[in-house]
Amino acid sequence: MNSNGFGFSFGNNDDDDSDHNDRNDNNRNNDPFGFFGGNFGFGGPGGAGGMGGGGLGDILNQFGQMLSGMGDSMNSPEGAGSVNYDLAARIARQQIGRVAPIKQSDKDAVEESVRLAELWLDSATQLPTSGYRVESWNAENWLDNTLPIWKRLVTPVAEQMNKAQLENLPEEAKEMMGPLSQLMNSMSSMNFGVQLGNALGDLAKQTLTGSDFGLPISPAGVTAILPANLHEASKGLEVAPQEMLVYISAREAARQRLFKHVPWLVERLVSSVEEYAAGLEIDTSHIQEAMGNFQMDNPDPERLQDMINEMQGMDLSPRIGSRNANAVSRLETLLALVEGWVDVVVTQALGERIPSTKAMNEAWRRRRATGGSAEQAFSKVVGIELGAPKVSEAAELWRRVENAVGVERRDAVWNHPDFLPTAEDIDKPAEFIDGLLGESEGEEFDPIAEITALEKLLAEEAEKKDEPDDKEDKKDEE
């Protein structure tokens, strides 16, 4: 059973699964982020993700795993693209294993906890309740309901990864690949599917809510809690289970308020991933150098074995980057601002009502610092390496903003993406807060109205510029 530093373990204690869990623990080599499973992408220290070594032995093991799960997936519609999602879903379900039906008592407890959390949140934020229906999920429900958004996040990265791989091949290799290109595409699709399935299967057993870590991956209109996962998670924490449920419900309800009433937020998070993917670049020079030393025309079996042994110890992971590095920075900042705002709002709503709020905040920070965080989910599932979002710093910024200009003005910052703090503001919030204080001196100042007026003025100026051309066209027609 792995502990992720949240103050409790995340493992499944079912007796039937104990042997399976022990094997998983051994395979993870005590990786503190091991509960996220295999990475999506290429793995290795230099790649997007961090699966460990990218040596020849690892690659052959992955190849064997792909073949064992092939079945009909190569011919399925879901297996025709850059990622074999049919294979990914089947592997994820194998990872999840048997799930018990959700008890009615757990469903009732979740609904009551969300209702109570929403009531208390009203005193801490101007953003109204989402009004979403409350659902209790198990790990399979989480997989089924979040997979559509994961597809949107993963697909552009996988497509660009494949494209970049082909662009980096020598011309001779491209010519040789011609007849085998369809097979190679299928194998690449399966490779991504296997790794995505492993990552999602592990994550499904650890996640506590529909939009855990601040990622908007649950369907619109749903506030979802996973009571079985939460029950396992709360065993090692000296907090009453009901208090823990209300705390987690409050965090999820607060996120859903943001995602509903800040209509541009979800799309901006997703588009940042798509922008990053569009600029993907792969450096394979170190791989080409290694392959150049691997001379297949050498008939000496001993020399051939020596070369194979040398390659097994090498990191054969492509080094991945993006021309659009700003998209990653924007994503990190947005995630920090979302979770930082949630920290502040939930603490205000629950702090005086639930004495253990402080302890749960600390446990949540430990979880975030030791693997239960957005950057690890993105790394393992999507294949994007993020820096750790500065959630604590963002929370401090939101607290200082509230102290300076009040709750209403604090929440109004979410009205437009141009109003949000930047990464620099999170590090040094004084100038940002001074700007808000300057705005508050004019009581009738409406930033949205100002932007609307500016856009209208620009449109009118553009029309005026077009008018002479229109008149000339009319003269020509006469």
From TrEMBL:
Organism ancestry: Bacteria, Bacillati, Actinomycetota, Actinomycetes, Mycobacteriales
Originating organism: Corynebacterium deserti GIMN1.010
Pfam families (UniProt xref): Zincin_2
Name assigned to this protein: Hydrolase
Region (Disordered): 1-32, 459-478
Low complexity bias: start-end ranges: 1-12
Coiled-coil spans in chain: none
PANTHER family in the record: HYDROLASE (PTHR39420:SF2), PTHR39420
InterPro entries given in the database record: Zinicin_2, Zinicin_2_N
Superkingdom: Bacteria
